Amino acid sequence: MLRCFVVKIWMRIPSNNALHYYLSIHTRHNSMAMRACGLYNLTDRRTSDRRFKTMPVKEMISNMGKRFVSEGLADATIVAADISLIHAKNRRVWHKSDINNSMVSRSRIDTEARWGFAKTKSWMFGYKLHLSCSTGPLVVSLSTDFSTANVSDNQMYCNRIEPLPNNTVRYVATDLGYDDHKLYDFSKNHGITLVCPIRRYRSTKGKRLKLVQFYKSDAG
Fold first, then answer.
1. Domains of the chain, residue spans
2. By CB atoms within 10 Å of each CB, which of 4, 71, 145, 176 scores lowest?
C-alpha cells in the first residue's frame, strides 16, 4: 500500500478511484507500475480505500526519514521546520460569520477546515501541513503533522521534534513564528538548539540575550 501511495503522489493521481483505474489499464507502462507496487492481481477498490484510510502516514514518513539518515543518505544535523497552507477541498469557503453561527450556507463546503493566515499567501480557508526535513544535499522529510489552518505554527512544533532521529539533530531552523521560550526549553531538553529570527530590545537579557547573540553570530 505504501508503494501504491508513492505512485499516486509521483504520478499526481488525484484520488483512490483514479489510482485504481490507472492500475487497471493494460499497457506496458501501467503494468510495470503495478508490478513495482508488488501487485499481481488488482485488489477491490473498496478494499484499497479501507487500507488507505488506515495507513499511518505520519509514522511511515518518520520511519523512512530515519532510514535515510541511518544509511548515511541524508544529513539531519540541521533540520528545517515550516508549514504550508492547503486549500480546502473544492476551494469553497465557509465564512467566519457562518462558522460562528454554525450555519452552512452552501453545499459541498468542508466544514472541518478553518481560516488561517500566512504572509506569503494571505488568508486561506483550509489546512496546514507542518513539515520537518533535512537540509543537506538530499532533502528528505523527517516528520510531519496536519492541522486546520487556524492552529498556530508553534503549537505543532513539539509533535514534529519528538519523532526526529535520536542523537543526530543539532539544530532546527525555523521562521519567526516559532520564537517561543517554551520551544527553546523543549528543544534544549532534546539536545537541540532552536534557531529562528529573534529581536533584541533594551530590556532583553539572560537566556534570550544569549539566543540573540548566537543568531547574529557566524554559526547562527
1. 2-53, 57-216
2. 71
CATH architecture of the domain formed by 57-216: 2-Layer Sandwich (3.30)
Query: In whole angstroms, how far apart are CA 76 and each of 17, 105, 154, 171, 206?
Result: 36, 47, 21, 9, 29
pLDDT in tens, 151-184: 998 999 998 898 888 789 999 999 988 888 899 9
Q: Is 79 helix (H, G, I), strand (E, B) or coil?
A: strand
Q: What cell was used for 122?
A: 494571505
Distance CA 141, CA 199 (A): 29
Q: Which residues contact 88 (CB under 8 A, 6 or more apart)?
A: 109, 110, 113, 125, 126, 127
How many whole angstroms separate alpha carbon 194 and alpha carbon 179?
A: 9
In a 13 Å sphere around the CA of 18, the CA atoms on its Cβ side amount to: 9
